[in-house]
């Protein structure tokens, strides 16, 4: 994964920070639902379906919509990568910026736009048709930290866990920044996310293979 292309580390960590930032804003805007952490939404959906009259009843349609929009974002992002193999990474990140800015802030469809953007962001890093670095879901990253720490303890490698720790830390820092920004500026906080996505697109352009 990350170890295979060290040039991708800084961009991946930056996007993890961006994803954490957007997720924290979305979490507050939606009153406890996630725009990038779909495992959490999936658990909440299952609980509500299993106990429709319990203390957590309701919001099934909202959760189902969030999950569907996330998958749709991944689908669109992947199609872009397939259609534009050389500059697909850049195009995906420009789409993320467009969704967070043009549609999210100006169009009034903020929550769907955030979810679509976070889904699409996961198509940024692909290898052989599969996601090579997930930038919005961190459970797998924690697993990688544990696996590579085991290899370190066994004497097989020294620093293999570090990029995954930086990836997770980036997400955590971003979420903290989003949690601080939203009470102060509301949805206008997404302007920083748009800028972050544009910066990422510029960095991705520099990583594009030669024609």
Task: List key phrases describing it.
211 residues; mainly alpha; two-stranded antiparallel sheet
Any overview of this molecule?
The chain has helices at 9-29, 38-50, 60-83, 88-103, 110-121, 139-153, 162-185, 190-207; strands at residues 126-127, 130-131. It is mostly helical and 211 residues long. The protein has one domain. Strands 1-2 form a two-stranded antiparallel ribbon. The protein starts with 8 loop residues before the first helix and ends with a helix. The mean pLDDT is 91.
Compact summary:
The chain crosses the membrane at residues 56-80, 92-111, 162-182, 188-208. This protein has one domain (2-204). It contains 8 helices and 2 strands; from the N terminus they run αααααββααα.
Main sheet: strand order: 1-2
Element order: H for helix, E for strand: HHHHHEEHHH
- Helix and strand composition category: mainly alpha
Uncertain stretches = none
């Amino acid at each position: 994964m990350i170890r295979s292309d060290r040039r991708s580390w800084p961009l991946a960590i930056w996007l993890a920070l961006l994803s954490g930032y957007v997720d924290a804003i979305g979490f507050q805007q939606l009153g406890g639902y996630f725009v990038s952490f779909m495992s959490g939404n999936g658990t909440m959906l299952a609980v509500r379906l299993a106990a429709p009259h319990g203390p957590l009843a309701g919001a099934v349609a909202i959760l189902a919509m969030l999950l569907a929009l996330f998958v749709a974002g991944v689908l669109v992002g992947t199609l872009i990568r397939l259609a534009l193999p050389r500059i697909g990474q850049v195009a995906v990140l420009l789409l993320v910026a467009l969704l967070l800015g043009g549609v999210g802030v100006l169009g009034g469809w903020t929550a769907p736009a955030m979810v679509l953007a976070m889904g699409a962001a996961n198509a940024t890093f692909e290898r052989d048709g599969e996601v090579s670095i997930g930038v919005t879901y961190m459970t797998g990253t924690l697993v990688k930290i544990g696996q590579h720490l085991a290899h370190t303890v066994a004497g097989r490698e020294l620093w293999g866990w570090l990029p995954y720790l930086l990836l997770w830390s980036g997400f955590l820092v971003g979420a903290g920044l989003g949690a601080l920004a939203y009470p102060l500026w509301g949805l206008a906080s997404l302007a920083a996310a748009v800028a972050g996505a544009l910066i990422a697109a510029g960095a991705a352009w520099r990583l594009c293979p030669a024609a």
